[in-house]
């Protein structure tokens, strides 16, 4: 009996030991197995479990095989998320589809009557905006390089200078009236519904205008004075005096702790033309550059143009002012009146304001729309996305308003088979926190664009992992670089990445990863997002 019990215990022990060894082997093998041996869902769930930041965030994911329409993975795919700049997928696809890649914008200089024999213009001269987003020194076609955020190189007023050159070449020597910045080609709705109150202070929230110069922003360079106690030195680029600057920043003796010494603060109340600066900057320190938004872009353009004319020896007796088309001047913000037959786009705003069309003194045609869409998506340029939305409204509904653009977006998405209940979009850029989309909605749009004649052009505007745009520093591994074509998105506690991925076997998938309500390092959330993309490629 004892011997039988001993043998039974021995066998049980051996079985337990074998079981433990098998379990250990199983764990080791699981770690060593190729990721292809596990379902994508299991790999993603294991990934989530490794990070406290990801565990407490709200994740939405949809991954779809484009050749078959098969769903490869989904998580909260029909729940709503704030998409941040993933909203630009909607505005850029709308513009590309509705306007076409070769669409151009016109900017013209107009006056009421031809100059007299002495080169004198009796009335006003109008700088009429037609929505061109690139009245600047931006490099076109888009390319990676210094200043990626703005992609501007050279003189930011180069386009204004060329228009002034054309006016001077007409033999004009004097203008008795004002220089008017006319942006009434679009309705004056400078800010999106749902933007934060401080967004317009900065370049990323610059007011939207049909007359846009240098992205409606300027750089304020702050440098230390010559000696201790001096006011800080201030320099503007472009060198256009627009705001009144109250500079109370003082130069202080360097003490070896630049972080303690360099304290620069600034503020501008909404609608105010006074920019207040205060704080301290160390003697011999590197200073600071602030890129800030322009309160009234049309007025700023008029000031810059007046200055350019005077630099060419043209006397301007009047001042500079702006002409807007206000929402209360429009009967229906979703639909404008049919265009006047035979009247071109730059003159229509003048007619709406009761001004005779007059004489053209200078003109500029933009680069094709496709080139700007590459800038908009790759750099995530908010202002240009807003201009796209208004351009579509103007072209399709005869009114460059937010409402007309959004109404046309709804029609476009309906054509794309997107459920109207699957989104709530209030702007073109994604700055609005009122925007809501689901991952399933985003992937539906991506699938439609992939199957459309615009596929190649649409793919070409998206950032490419490890190569350009906002993905230039992500997906840099040689085995992954060039396979992810996707739009990023970022707001406080929001991160997004949606687009296309070409798997190693050559087929394509569409995906949307939207993350809201995380309270930790953005880099950690992005690292998980990037790892999910890597898993999708396998």
Question: What can you see in these coordinates?
Answer:
The protein is an alpha/beta fold. It is 32% helix and 23% strand. It contains 14 helices and 21 strands. The strands form 6 sheets. A 5-stranded antiparallel beta sheet has the order 2-1-21-20-19, with helices on both faces. The radius of gyration is 29 Å and the shape is globular. The relative contact order is 0.18.
Q: Strands, helices and their partners?
A:
Blueprint: H1 2-32, H2 40-49, H3 52-56, E1 58-65, E2 71-75, H4 88-99, E3 106-111, E4 120-121, E5 125-128, H5 158-169, E6 174-175, E7 179-187, E8 217-223, E9 233-237, E10 244-252, H6 258-261, E11 263-267, E12 274-282, E13 288-293, H7 297-311, E14 315-316, E15 320-325, H8 348-352, E16 359-365, H9 369-379, H10 382-397, H11 402-415, E17 423-424, E18 436-437, H12 439-451, H13 455-461, E19 484-491, E20 494-502, E21 508-516, H14 522-537
Parallel strand pairs: 4-6, 5-7, 6-14, 7-15, 10-12
Antiparallel strand pairs: 1-2, 1-21, 3-5, 3-16, 8-9, 8-13, 11-12, 17-18, 19-20, 20-21
Helix pairs in contact: 2-14, 4-9, 4-10, 5-7, 9-10, 10-11
